[in-house]
Amino acid sequence: VAPPSGKTEVPQAAPVAVFKLTADFRDDKDPNKVNLGVGAYRTDEGQPWVLPVVRKVEKIIADDHSLNHEYLPILGLPEFRSSSSKIALGEDSPAILENRVGAVQCLGGTGALKIGAEFLHRWHNGQDNTKTPVYVSAPTWENHNAVFANAGFEDVRPYKYWDAEKRGLDLSGFLSDLESAPEHSIFVLHACAHNPTGTDPSQDEWKQVAEVMKRRNLFVFFDSAYQGFASGCLDKDAWAVRYFVSQGFEIFCAQSFSKNFGLYNERVGNLTIVAKDNENLTRVLSQMEKIVRITWSNPPSQGARLVSITLNDPELFAEWKDNVKTMADRVLLMRAQLKAKLQALGTPGTWEHITEQIGMFSFTGLNPQQVQYMVKQKHIYLMASGRINMCGLTTKNIDYVAESIHEAVTTVQ
Amino acid sequence: NVLLRDTMVVGISVKHGCSCPFCCSSWWSEVQMGPPDPILGVTEAFKRDTNPKKINLGVGAYRDDQGKPYVLNCVRKAEAQIATKKLDKEYLTIGGLAEFNKACAQLALGPDNEVLKSGRSITVQTISGTGSLRVGANFLSRFHTVAKDVYLPKPSWGNHTPIFRDAGMQLKAYSYYDPKTCGFDFKGALDDILKIPEKSVIMLHACAHNPTGVDPRPEQWKEISALVKKRNLLVFFDMAYQGFASGDIDRDAWAVRYFIEQGHNVVLSQSFAKNMGLYGERVGGFTVVCKDAEEAKRVESQLKILIRPIYSNPPMNGARIASTILNTPELYKEWLVEVKDMATRIIRMREELVGNLKKEGSTLNWQHVTDQIGMFCFTGLKPDQVERLTKEFSVYMTKDGRISMAGVTSGNVGYLAHGIHTVTK
Fold first, then answer.
1. What is the pTM for the complete model shown?
2. Model pLDDT for residues A194-227, shown as the tens digit of each residue
3. What's phi and psi for A256, nearest 5 deg?
4. CB-CB neighbours of A92 under 10 Å
5. Sorted alphabetically, which Gene3D superfamilies does this protein's record hold (chain B) (predicted)?
6. Residue A251, burial from CB neighbour count under 10 angstroms (0-12, 13-18, 19+)
């Protein structure tokens, strides 16, 4: 066998942390093991849950022999794009009525962020945005950095967000970073259920953020991966996005249907674009097409069909909302129970943040050593940051987890 | 209310009748209108045409003899089988469905290939062929730093150029198609390949060259392989039509297998859009043949780092269908028959087109129509002839004279021949 033609030595890359955690969990033989890592919903039996409405719609698709596997348009399934944007912006959104909302069907929330980032790099502020600052929250979903860096942005910076001391939002830090950001900077905002902290600004706090962003001419890029999942109510979870639109902002909103539809592996996402008017929107979409064509050509059809059929049928839509509420309610219950148990145990510290935080994740406040203890001694798998996925908690394991946290906090510094 | 407007801005702010720049200007006023897609534009124009005899030969998708999209029987069976399993929807790993990746590599390389036995290759699931090429281009751009040039055959699939360019590679070309013969410019190709700087990347279409339908013969592939080895070039195979070209999946993969056997550690893009009719499900694979299993592991880790910031992990549905077919003996057998049937229908349409052209009285040499292979045919028609064909006969195709044989049916082949003869006599 001849030597490879001139390939540079390829170094081993470190595995992505969250997937390594799951792999380690899988290999662990301990009967009490608990996976509080990857962000996917679990039932109270600790099992994945395919939404009943999804099973129903799968059958509808399977029984419809008029359907085939032909290519979708480059921008995706039209009924999916429009109904998804309506979910984010509201059925009666003035922006939609004014015909200045468009969308690109993408591969999950990641894909939507990717296409949005690629567009911004080419067109945001002049035609080369290599130096344009992109701000992501401190902390944020770990892939945000990579998505924007790989789209060619050299200056991806943190904006203050999480106050570790008070275990809440560092509003003054956030606002001051907005004030000092160079004009035209891009800000990635979590629409609701902030990942990983579970800490969202209040409505009043969002208003303050918007005021500064308007004044400082900053670009709004929402990441909306948990709509419906946070409070159990779609409209409530979309309040921030809709507020910004009502204030006249042009925005990008990367939507994921991985969690709220439980369609993780079908890669269903939507990049909603709100522009000043239809003419600007049209030009933007034409450039989005060019970007899509050199990335994946056109998006996968199965997931988009599932979501589209559901959203466009009143009965199915109602059933979906109900399924979403089921998931959100279980998470809320686990939050309440975990807090109650920690308080009952007399675990040092305050645990109000467990129920004040919202969505799938909770930033426990455990330090790296305490996390190590949890993983190595107790076989409870959570991220080094102290982030836990509330969905990993069940009525069967919650006592064990609470006791373990208690041990970690009291015995490990 | 008079609005003070930036002259670049079109459109009126309906929310605020004021003159502040925030309200009246758009972030996107400098965004240029993108040009219409050369292929999509064809289909759009076709849709608008009211002529009942209209034919769409732009579409790069198989059609049955009634001109309808075709869902393979083995696909329907696989889907039914999958449905009974009531599988969950949990994320795939970044590299995709393992059973699919294994079967995908086996299909290309042959199940007894030494490369697979030694574990010295890595295959990741990708978003069909485009996604595979993109991941491959990104990988080469990042890790094949000894050379930035990718040599494409002249002509090549239109999307190759922007994909590699956007990934940071430089595009060059080697002679391939001879418009005088409507065939392979073998001498021209060898002459050009001889001049390619060492370690550059050379793109080869494994079979059913797109857009020309012109493939090298085995003896020619052998000479190309020897020359490429001498020049120490990195081979990037694009195989989007395995099974679809000759009807035989082994025959269509012959060049890929030969090159590997000769010691080329190739990179390979595969698509299941056409040969399984899974277009919209986006099923593909990207394979890197490495020097050993240890290198393959390192390469795999880096491919994951490249994929995660694009789409995190790939879609399940299509890969699950493809995997079921490839890994279930009865379905696999059925698939081979269906692929052969599709290829056979195309071959028959080629023969009928030539036969009808002769019947029309054409004295031109149309041999290339039956010599060429795969979905596409480079007719040799000039742009003005193409325009006439579209305007006078409502036959839609790309300006370069390429037609998709998949759009030809026994119902329209006579009309098509008549049109072609009229504009070329």
1. 0.95
2. 999 999 999 999 999 999 999 999 999 999 999 9
3. -120, 140
4. 8
5. Aspartate Aminotransferase, domain 1 (3.90.1150.10), Type I PLP-dependent aspartate aminotransferase-like (Major domain) (3.40.640.10)
6. buried
